[in-house]
Predict the structure.
Amino acid sequence: MPPTLFETSVPIWRVFALLGSTLGIAVGSALLAMAIGVSMGLLLYLSGRKATSLWIGALVLPLIWPPFQTAIGWMVLQGESGITLFQKDSFDSW
């Protein structure tokens, strides 16, 4: 079975530091996506052109980035601390 939080050799402050950096990545990438999306939307509005599928795709791409970055940060947190959300034995009963 994978170790729980208190059974790992990683100090608790390190786990919380990694969790904080994961949340920082999530918030930072969400703010970046908002800034890019708002600025591109404003430029598109000021140009007076209708949104083509290319522009719509370009406006959607920044919205995909925050969940992707958060997932990467969470995987790094789990890899550094050795903690997993699901115990392997919990799926054996299925």
Summary: DSSP finds two helices and no strands in the chain.
